[in-house]
Design goal:
The complex is a heterodimer of chains A (343) and B (259). By secondary structure, chain A is an all-alpha fold. Helices cover 77% and strands 0% of the residues of chain A. Chain A has one domain (70-338): ABC transporter involved in vitamin B12 uptake, BtuC (Orthogonal Bundle), CATH 1.10.3470.10. Chain A is built from 15 helices and no strands. In chain A, 48% of the residues are buried. Chain B is built from nine helices and twelve strands. Chain B has helices at residues 42-49, 72-78, 94-99, 114-127, 142-155, 172-187, 199-205, 223-226, 229-236; strands at residues 3-13, 16-26, 31-36, 57-62, 65-66, 79-82, 160-163, 191-195, 208-213, 216-221, 240-244, 250-254. Chain B has a six-stranded mixed β-sheet, sandwiched between helices. In chain B, strands 2-1-4-5 form a four-stranded antiparallel β-sheet, covered by helices on one side. Chain B is globular, with a radius of gyration of 19 Å. Chain B starts with a strand and ends in a 5-residue tail after the last strand. Classes of the chains: A mainly alpha (343), B alpha/beta (259). At the A-B interface, helix 10 and helix 11 of A face helix 2, strand 6 and helix 4 of B.
Chain lengths: 343, 259
């Protein structure tokens, strides 16, 4: 007679599944609440009417639909993309300290953005060049890594090399940029932010996010196998290099699309997967959707602080660093207290 | 119906052969132990047999089908590999870890179904770990971890099970627990290959033994007949003595100078 799962274990499975569902829905109420906040405070009823039809002044409708909503949707997508690609990259690199910037996508996107500003083709060209720069950097890192044998370690090493190369290119562009007109723009972009995001920027982001997220959601159980040693994964019938490559492509698509709209935003891709893992466990079947919901929620909150705390916008990367580092430290301490160390 | 390797030759560096012309047959219901000194090619041979490495010369067939014609997924349905330690980067639960054994049965974009969870239950019951299902593997003892990996191999539902030093780093009781488990699985019809550094493991639990020296077959056959102090001296380079209790059980010990 086969033993059935115990009652307590079933409850914990149901609880974990419920938690994942809750985390996935969490961004919705936060997004709605965020629509109320800003220089002009709106009531919940007004926002509801403006969103779902009814008589509201045209200025209010424009404020909700054309100013706040695109920015908040962008914030949610950027948060989701960074968290999901961070979780996936921590998995395939078998290292919890990795985030999706490891292969140079941010540095490449930064170079593209800086170039666009110096060439005077911002803002339309900026998103395209930043996206292309991000893909180019990761493409180079993967080529270099493959040339050196294709193992995980050489891939990380190539990523570090390509990152610092593109960082130098950014500095080069800054050096030649007009110090009064172009340089401040580049500097602010590199600190991240979502001010003045319009629907025209959100659509490409949404399409790329859709492709990357669907891909990683479909691959999410198989991602687990990549966290085993390479011979183990191979013996389980996995084409390790192929699946790893697919995850790199999808994760890079997500990060490049996010960064080309938000500028450089750190820490979300590192901390959110950790928090999600602490809540639902390391199985990517649950971890990927949990990271998606939590990432969107966290970035919406950061963006609310960014646009409402001071009369001027606070760059996102400053906030994620100033708040993210202490939070990471607290998580770390809690994990140590629980015993068993960091995992 | 058997797992057959013929003339397996492998070199990590050109012309420095770790395995040279090694042949073997593993039949369902049998346990074959691979013995040999460190660096004699045991692990490389095991990795060739589970398809992680492709030998430069020679051919491996499983139940009449050549490895070269099998996709890695099809191969994994026929051959399961049990490493020494779980090398996951994160602390999966026992159930999650055993579920990974279902990978060759789950589609590329799929996720495990109810049937897969049932197979996991069966595998856990076979090794006696049902009670530990929800525990993170990092909280288990060495012996329990070894059993989790064996359960993962069983969940793979492959007719051949390949184990890398299943008796290493375990106390005598756990060595017995794991190896008698392996023996019982062979009696149920699995073909088993295991590497070991202990000749007595082969003597106690094996049907066959293959003794390697410097990548070549030194001796092969029934461990009770093949293993002798002389052949072990050839394999390991030190002298051995036999301990026998008169009831047919014997064991080998290195010969040390009397005090």
């Amino acid at each position: 007679m086969r033993a059935l799962p115990g009652r307590a274990e079933r409850i914990s499975q149901v609880r974990r599944a419920g938690l994942v569902l809750g985390l996935c829905l969490l961004p919705l109420p936060i997004l709605f609440g965020s629509l109320l906040l800003g220089r002009v405070q709106l009531g919940a009823g007004e926002v509801w009417t403006a969103l779902f039809g009814g008589a509201v002044p045209e200025t209010m409708r424009a404020l909700v639909w054309r100013v706040r909503l695109p920015r908040l949707v962008a914030a949610a997508l950027v948060g989701t993309n960074l968290a999901v690609s961070g979780a996936a990259f921590q998995g395939i690199f078998r290292n919890p300290l990795v985030e999706s910037r490891i292969l140079g996508v941010s540095a490449g996107a930064g170079f593209g953005a800086a170039l666009a500003m110096v060439l005077g083709i911002a803002p339309a060209g900026l998103q395209i060049l930043a996206f292309a720069g991000g893909l180019l950097a990761v493409g180079l890192a993967v080529l270099l890594g493959t040339a050196f044998g294709g193992g995980i370690l050489v891939l990380v090493l190539s990523g570090v090399l390509v990152s610092s190369f593109f960082s130098s290119l950014v500095s080069l562009v800054k050096y030649f940029a007009d110090p009064y007109v172009q340089l401040p723009g580049i500097t602010f972009w590199l600190m991240g932010g979502l001010s003045a995001v319009r629907w025209s920027q959100v659509w490409p982001l949404a399409v790329a996010s859709g492709v990357g997220l669907v891909g990683l959601v479909l691959l999410r159980w198989r991602l687990n196998l990549l966290t085993l040693s390479e011979p183990e994964a191979q013996s389980l019938g996995l084409s390790v290099r192929k699946v790893r490559f697919a995850v790199v492509v999808l994760g890079t698509l997500l990060t490049a699309a996010a960064v080309s709209v938000s500028g450089v935003v750190g820490w979300v891709g590192l901390i959110v997967p950790h928090a999600a893992r602490a809540l639902v466990g390391p199985d990517h079947l649950l971890l990927i959707p949990a990271s998606a919901g939590l990432g969107a929620a966290v970035l919406l909150l950061f963006d609310n602080i960014s646009r409402t705390a001071l009369p001027t916008e606070i760059p996102l990367d400053i906030l994620t660093g100033l708040i993210g580092v202490p939070v990471f430290f607290l998580l770390f301490m809690r994990q140590l207290k629980k015993g068993g160390g960091w995992r | 119906m058997s797992l057959v390797g013929e003339g397996i030759t492998y070199a990590y560096v050109p012309n420095r052969f770790v395995l040279a012309d090694v042949s073997l047959v593993v039949e369902p219901g049998n346990t074959l132990f691979l013995l040999g000194a460190n660096g004699s090619g045991k692990t490389t041979l095991l990795e060739c047999l589970c398809g992680v490495r492709s030998p430069q010369l020679g051919e491996i067939t499983v139940d009449g089908v050549a490895f070269s014609t099998l996709s890695s997924r099809e191969r994994a349905k026929r051959i399961a590999y049990v490493p020494q330690f779980p090398e996951a980067a994160f602390a999966y639960t026992v159930e999650e870890m055993v579920l990974f054994g279902r990978a060759p049965h789950v589609g590329p974009f799929g996720r495990p179904t109810k049937k897969d969870y049932e197979k996991v239950e069966e595998a856990l019951a076979l090794v006696g770990l049902e009670g530990l299902r929800a525990r993170p593997i990092t909280t288990l003892s060495g012996g329990e971890r070894r059993l989790v990996l064996i359960a993962r191999g069983l969940a793979q539902e492959a007719p051949y099970l390949l184990l890398d030093e299943p008796d290493a780093h375990l106390d005598p009781a756990n060595q017995h627990r794991v190896l008698s488990m392996v023996q019982a699985l062979a009696e149920k019809g699995l073909g088993v290959v295991a590497t070991t550094h202990n000749p007595n493991s082969a003597l106690l639990y094996g049907h066959k033994v293959l003794l390697l020296r410097a990548g070549k077959t030194l001796a092969e056959g029934d461990p009770r007949h093949v293993l002798s102090p002389e052949i072990l001296t050839e394999a390991y380079g030190i002298s051995f003595q036999v301990l026998a209790n008169g009831a047919g059980t014997k064991a080998f010990l290195p010969r040390v100078r009397a005090i």
